[in-house]
Fold:
Amino acid sequence: PASDDGKKKGESKDPDYSKKEKELIFSNWTLYIDVDDKDENKRPTLDRFQKESGIKVKYNEDVNDNVEFFGKIRPQLEAGQSTGRDIICFSDFMAGRLIRHGWAQRLDPKNMPNVVTNMEPRFRNAAHDPGRQYTVPWAGLATVVAYNKKATKGRKVTSVEQLLTDESLKGKAAMLTEMQDTVGMTLLDMGKDCTKFTEDEFDAAVARIQKAVDNKQLRRFTGNDYVEELDKGDIAACLAWAGDVVQMQFENPDIEFVIPQKGYLYATDDLLVPAKARHKANAEALMDFYYDPKNAAELAAWVNYICPVAGAKEELAKIDKELAADPLIIPDEKMIKAGRVFMELDDDAETTYEDKFSKVIGA
Amino acid sequence: MSAEQAAGVTLTGISKTFGDFTAVQPMDLSIPQGSFFALLGASGCGKTTTLRMIAGLEQPTAGRVMLGDRDVTSLPPHRRPVNTVFQSYALFPHLSVQDNVAFGLRRRGKKQVHKEVEDVLELVELGPLARRKPAQLSGGQQQRVALARAIVNRPEVLLLDEPLGALDLKLRRQMQLELKRIQTEVGITFVHVTHDQEEAMTMADTIAVMNHGRVEQLGAPAELYESPGSAFVANFLGQSNLIAAEISAAEGDELVLRAGDTKLTLPRDRMRATSAASGTKVLAGIRPEKIAIRSRSDEAAVPEGHNRLTGTIKDASFTGVSTQYVVASPWCPELAVFAQNVESAAGLTPGAEVVLHWNPAHTFGLDGDQDADAGTGEDAL
Amino acid sequence: MSAEQAAGVTLTGISKTFGDFTAVQPMDLSIPQGSFFALLGASGCGKTTTLRMIAGLEQPTAGRVMLGDRDVTSLPPHRRPVNTVFQSYALFPHLSVQDNVAFGLRRRGKKQVHKEVEDVLELVELGPLARRKPAQLSGGQQQRVALARAIVNRPEVLLLDEPLGALDLKLRRQMQLELKRIQTEVGITFVHVTHDQEEAMTMADTIAVMNHGRVEQLGAPAELYESPGSAFVANFLGQSNLIAAEISAAEGDELVLRAGDTKLTLPRDRMRATSAASGTKVLAGIRPEKIAIRSRSDEAAVPEGHNRLTGTIKDASFTGVSTQYVVASPWCPELAVFAQNVESAAGLTPGAEVVLHWNPAHTFGLDGDQDADAGTGEDAL
Amino acid sequence: MTALAPPPPAAPEADAPPPPPPGGRRKLTPYWLLLPAILWLLVFFAVPMFFQASTSVQSGSSGEGYELTWHWANYTDAMSEYAEHFGRSIMYAAAATLLCLVIGYPLAYMIAFRAGRWRNVLLVMVIAPFFTSFLIRTLAWKHILSDGGPLVGALDALHLLDVTATLGMTEDDRLLATPLAVICGLTYNFLPFMILPLYSSLERINPALHEAAQDLYAKPATVFRKVTFPLSLPGVVAGTLLTFIPASGDYINAKLLGSPGEQMIGNAIQRQFLNVRDYPTAAAMSFLLMAAILIIVTVYIRRAGTEELV
Amino acid sequence: MRVLTFVRRNLVVIAGTLALGYLLLPNLVVLLYSFNKPVSRYNNTWQEFSTEAWSDPCGAPGICDSVGLSLQIGLLSTLAATALGTLAAFALARHRFRGRAGVNSLIFLPMAMPEVVMAASLGTLFLNMRIEFGFTTILIAHIMFCLSFVVVAVKARLAGMDPKLEEAARDLYAGPLQAFVRVTLPLALPGIAAGAMLSFALSLDDVIITQFNSGPSTITFPMFVWGASLKGVPVQVNVIGSAMFFIAVLLVMAGQLLGNGRARRKS
Ligand SMILES: Nc1ncnc2c1ncn2[C@@H]1O[C@H](COP(=O)(O)OP(=O)(O)OP(=O)(O)O)[C@@H](O)[C@H]1O
Ligand SMILES: Nc1ncnc2c1ncn2[C@@H]1O[C@H](COP(=O)(O)OP(=O)(O)OP(=O)(O)O)[C@@H](O)[C@H]1O
Ligand SMILES: [Mg+2]
Ligand SMILES: [Mg+2]
Structure:
């Protein structure tokens, strides 16, 4: 409801200089945009956007970690200063936190016809941003179980349970340092609803993970770096993000993934315009550009994460049939149904849970 | 030091105190212009401190420093026309020999220094080594660079703080001659600090003997040597035999002393003790080389009127040029005697009974209250 | 060195080569047991290297080292009954004086060392300083600790590598006496390296003079001094006047030499040149202290049969004990003459015409092919 | 005595030149020289410590912000919750320091006494790895220690891994994600900090002392034990401190080479600060670590008897 | 038997060489893999020899910017730390003054402090002061922790320097400033250079303090590697790491040779 939004603390109309300044500063995760096969410094879709719109994009791959990055820009946000960025790509829970603090600018649908028409319906509403007033999904993330066939000596790994208890995986299983993913998947495995859980349930899940840690079942908690170790076989099985798995499969036939019976965790990485950003309209232009199915398909073909744009499947098929059929990129019905979103947490709950989780991962 | 000579350096009531330790007692000192002046003294007696006050590297606690007629007491070192040759040379290791030598000239704004540097290096015979770094030179060569670096500035006074201390004996003797030659050639006032008495005597026109922060005696080398004013000077400048005695009578120009059961004669004008009254305790001094030594059997040949002592040779050591005897006589356990080796002296071996004798004119008399061992080096340990 | 004495150290055909530089030429050397043996030579002549081969700190390139009857050539240093007093003392800075001294004893497994350490510290007169660290000692005291640390082990041979080099003159003379006393007391073979010839002469029973890696001459100090075998020895051990001459005739026990227009006589048995035929070039040597100097006006007093030369005094320098003259004579530009200062010599000032004369028995003859300046120190610069 | 009677005590006379200005410009010189550095350290080292001290007794949440409430419980909480981390940090750092000493000593010794004209080249080799980023090198270790790698294979074949496994240093025939890997990583990272001070104190030893010891019947081993080592103690003390202190606060090695069971206090501080954003806890842990190190270092220096560290 | 004696004689050299090997092994691996041509994003198995990455070291997006930033920060912080540290070292080595002990420990303390502690406390300061994390904050932090190392290096050099040399300069008509510029400074230079080199190395290498105090868009080379390590390290990282290693070694060795050569020519 629009009346509410005005009251969100700290929100005010920030002046937009898009008309005068045809430029845009974009902070994204590393390796999260298509690059030219021959020249890694060229980014085809982005280059095309710049050419078509006449907006010069300064593209930074400086997001490695939601919380860490948020910590770095937080002082400016709190002080009501510009973060020096017009678009930031945050995971949904972090985007939610910015919205709650009033540190994200409300987007104008009028500037984004493609978004309005092409966004997959299931993305149109989200717990952290009801009605998608502030954010636009860049990609969908599915947290699944992946394993290296060679390292498990052919054994299949099909569940989180197996990661936590299977003797044959002792010292070779890994989970993620992201609390949402690891605890969420464990909760699902325990038959709990990760979209709505109690603190006791959370504690039980953490205790379960702790036991695996104590048994030396779990080798490490990783960020994105599980990829390298899974590829090498130092990690035999782990929680993984779908997009990574797809990419790994190109290169390593031993990599397999499984969508656990009990469900998987599902999230989005969202683009948002932080408070005091100078070029909101330019940002909206870029978001709109990437919601053109053709552009979206091109992006998805490279990053291999779930594409939130309707109609991209057909475009993708033109590029690569196999990819278009991969449920990890364009999910099928079954896949969509098995996905769960982690519960929306307020700041205090998040601190409490993060703190508990920190102890499990050893830090 | 005669009054008609122009003074090169005059120190007036100068003293230096570090905390509550007085390194240099208030003293006056006047160094004639163009002379070779030596400051001699044991380690720690304040020689370096005195020199540093002249150079301006140390501010005197009291007193004034004059160069010629100019009071320079409050001038910083770089404004004084004085240069120093340091004991450890203090050559700049990062500069070549010629740059070391040119340093002072350049600081005074000279642009064309080549000629002067070349000349002075010629003077110290280092021309061919001008481009070397100090580390590539031998000790003697470094010493000469240090000297060249100082004299090239034609200072009014050149201060030398034990410049030869680090050299070995042979080299040292040679550098002494060299230094003397250069001083004669350039005519600058040299103030030379050393604790090698032979060095001081061969080189200097005037010697000041320092002890515990004060000048004990000052004079020409031969004067100091022949008539030392105190036990310290007598022992420190060369070796002396100091025999404890008592004045027993005065006969005309001579004093008669009694040491044990021996009678010694001493010219009255060579008596330095304040009182010459009978019964006064004195030290009767005689230099080892002044004493003739002969076998007891040969006693008859002792000239009439000579002071004589009898004793036993405790030790005889051959040093090449001379033989040094240590003779024990009843009231003087260790008398040193030097005999130049001309003809080999038969029978003068340890254990031999001998008679020592000397011309009384060579005897000198000192105040008997002093420590007869002052300045022998025993106290330095 | 008489053959009947037991050999303390015997070096047989020993030599040492560093890369392509030969530091010690093959040489034989036998050091009598219980003697005070001095190795004398200019800097770099191989003294230290020889000593280190005896200590086992350097492996000889060829030859053998025997201690008594035992071949120790291949024994490592810690297995040889030999100790060294190093030039820089090499005291262990982290250990107290007594622990330094006890070091060797403890390494040989002695538990009760207290008594021995105490005794040896008594010997070197350092008892009260036993608990100090080396840094808290003066140079002379450190030197004595180094000595005590070595002799407490009662080694068969004690090696001393310029142990007094770092001390100042006065202290050095005193330590020489001390060392000599201690050697006499403990009776150990001392092999003492020095380049101070006076030190070697006063202390040693036997001296070996080394030059460029070989022993030039070996003998008792007086023997070496009075009859040097080469120009190097003559100049290095004391000072010598070497006059280029030619044998003109042989008369009985004497050779008659001609130098310019002067006739000099030389005892045949003091002629070291291989040939004594007429016309042979020789260097006629005479020590400065053997020469008497008198005024030309006084010429009549020259004893009959003395060698005599006439000349002009170029320089006279007073050193206290003696006066050193430099006399120019037509065919010998710089003759040194030492005259002990007994009675002051009137008229012997620079410029004076003098006659020099000496007993021909003191003349020595050397091979005329040598550089007359060898060993004077001029070549060391 | 000569006639040089001492003049009356040195009271400056009217015409005497003025004594040098007491305390003038020269006395102030050191303060001017120090001013910039000290100011810098005060503002960016001492003041932050003060801020952290105040932060460590704040309470609140990352969402609502923290305020100073003298919440001392932060310390007790940190102490009780992270006791294991503290213990592990100290132990790993100590083990790494010991290893550094054992590995670094021969190298420092070799450079000081046996390297001849290679000395400077070797010294550069010791520092040069710094120029290849620490992270790259640690990642390279990950590579070298990899489960399927040749090193694990070789050690396994020699049954060395069984030995370390019984000691609890490794797990399941692997090196990565074990205490051993973390300790080796720490050792590797801080080795230059051990070698440099060791070298500089060894280099100062007069080689004649070695010869003197041999001459006094000491076997080579005894020479080392009785002379070389005691004389290098200042270097040992400086080296162990420069290794132990940073190692105890490191988190990179534990993060990259360790498993959850090997995380150190640095990891906890880093996560509390950068991820959980619980600044008070992070600050309290920092102070506890500082205190622990201060105590250990003080005791150690007392025992080692060396005041002169640098 | 002979082998045994050889081993015994050269035990130290063998152990030292092994230690050196341990120290350089990772560099060797880094170098080796800089010539790899990985088929995937992950440069962790040997594929085939290629100099591709060497011919295009900036091939990975952002890498050269980060190297540039690192060099910039390294140079600036070295410059500042060396200047401040040298001044302080002079004060400590050449003057006795009140409060010397306190100053000494303030300077020593940063070395006696784990990096996280410093990093966190400095981070706290910046947060409290609402100072934007970025270039300035990194620079400030680097200068702070390099400072102590410079002071120690320069102080050691000055302590070994004969104070007589300065007196000699003053005696030779050099005023205080000239004595400093002409004599003291050139002689202290090796110490200053050592301090500078160490601080440059430490700055280039630093992860921990940088991580706590860098801004979102100031990615130093180590921070770039940190980010890349999560996603797959490009070969170019190995190239740049190896290149920096070799450049450092070569520069120092060239300086060495130059010095030797000059000395030899002079003699
Ligand atoms: N800066 C100083 N602070 C305190 N005491 C000093 C200082 N400089 C010299 N002294 C003391 O003053 C005394 C005289 O020192 P000085 O250097 O003048 O002696 P010296 O005669 O040159 O001795 P040496 O022959 O050993 O060089 C010594 O006892 C010395 O310890
Ligand atoms: N380890 C070495 N390597 C190469 N040359 C050496 C070595 N040790 C000594 N030398 C050379 O051997 C020669 C003899 O050296 P040694 O130390 O024995 O001389 P020395 O007579 O003791 O001289 P000094 O009186 O200066 O001590 C010298 O020229 C020296 O340079
Ligand atoms: Mg002095
Ligand atoms: Mg020698």
Notes: Chain E has a mean pLDDT of 87. The domain at 68-229 of chain E is CATH 1.10.3720.10 (MetI-like fold). The radius of gyration of chain E is 23 Å. Chain E touches chain D through 90 residues (CB under 8 Å).
